Amino acid sequence: MKITNTTVTTPAGVVVRTDVTRPQGSGSSGSAVSATSSSQVDLSPASQQLLALQNDDHDIDTNRVQTIRDAIASGQYTVDPSRITDGLIASIQELLK
Fold first, then answer.
1. If 0-12 CB within 10 Å is exposed, 13-18 middle and 19+ buried, where does residue 18 land?
2. Contact in structure between 5 and 17 (CB atoms under 8 Å)
3. Going by C-beta distance under 8 Å and a sequence separation of 6 or more, which residues neighbour residue 41?
4. DSSP for the chain, written as a single string
5. What is the phi/psi pair of residue 77, to 5°?
6. What is the pLDDT of residue 86?
7. How far is Cα 20 from Cα 40, in angstroms, rounded to an integer?
8. What's the whole-number mean pLDDT along residues 54-69?
9. Mean pLDDT calculated for residue range 7-15
10. What is the rounded distance in angstroms from the CA atom of residue 25 to the CA atom of residue 32?
11. Is the pLDDT of residue 89 over 80?
């Protein structure tokens, strides 16, 4: 048996190690070869943090969304232009830092 260890680093910084065990033979591509393989993926700390954020079920406040939908449907939702302006100015100031 031949054991081949391969380590691949993707552009995103994810390290993938593949351990493949194959019987030794002629290695011709036309023959069927029985192989046992196992894979292990090691995520970088940044990838782990992004994965944790993705799995967070608290991204959207569904109660707040429903309240806004109901207010729009009933015609009670009002837009405060000064609040929008203040938010845009704050965002621009943050980007210019």
1. middle
2. yes
3. 14, 15, 16, 17
4. -EEEEEEEE-TTS-EEEEEEEE--S---TTS----EEEEEEE--HHHHHHHHHHT-TTSS-HHHHHHHHHHHHHT-----HHHHHHHHHHHHHHHH-
5. -80, 125
6. 96
7. 11
8. 82
9. 57
10. 11
11. yes
Instruction: List pLDDT tens digits, range 42-55.
Output: 878 888 888 877 76
Q: Is the pLDDT of residue 22 over 70?
A: no
Could you give the dihedral angle defined by the CA atoms of residues 91, 53, 44 and 36, in that order, rounded to the nearest 10 degrees? -150
Stated pTM of the model: 0.34
Per-residue pLDDT, 36: 66
